[in-house]
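Minutes, project check-in
Item: structure for the 253-residue chain
Input as provided by the requester:
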Amino acid sequence: MIFVKILPDKTALGRAAAAYGAEAIRTAIETRGKANIAVATGASQFEMLAELVRADLDWSRVTAFHLDEYIGMSESHPASFRQYLRARFTAHLPSLCAFHFVEGDAPDLVAELARLDGLVQAHPVDVTFAGIGENAHLAFNDPPADFEATEAFKVVDLDERCRRQQFGEGWFSALDAVPREAISMTIRQIMKSGSIVLAVPDARKAEAVRATLEAEISPMAPASILRRHPSCHLFLDPASAALLRQRPGYDQA
């Protein structure tokens, strides 16, 4: 099921999501001596990541992955998720045990997928930090998402609405510059996470939030599958929660 908390603004949302995720990381470290996490990128994650890197954790016991990367894009490109995460995450955590980046420009994508699969199987993810796309995508699993893929990462096609979101957020100078393919963590792999923490602010996400929580669970609303996860926590602001019919039943700060 999805536990929903509505915060007064995106700053409070980011703080609350980071605090919940940090506690889940802390519990994993206390239980197993280490923790494995996956983190997302995009404008929706700015506030959450800014708070998470300040968390009082033994980061030397944490191994991290990220959810996706564009195919054929160098790390030096301004829209590269590796560059995003080096600037907003790893640069602030010098003691981090490891961060396994998705090399979208690897010369052999089959080998890269196999490398990532082996790494994530060796480091089962305790906490996944994610967002929800404007088309309700989860990572880069756009509608209709593949709920059955058994590999940890796969090559996916990006639909037009997803590509328009990337352009609209300012990562690219033109829609035609947005890549059409990416490597993404699969739905099944995300669902294997011990906990999932979703930070989803802004009115442009309201339709996707409603589909995630209130529409039929379907590949056409990929994030709706999270209602079948035992520990998924969704943090919203009033704008992203605006279209929810069941809003009174959710926890509002």
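Outcome recorded: The mean pLDDT is 96.
No further action items on this chain.
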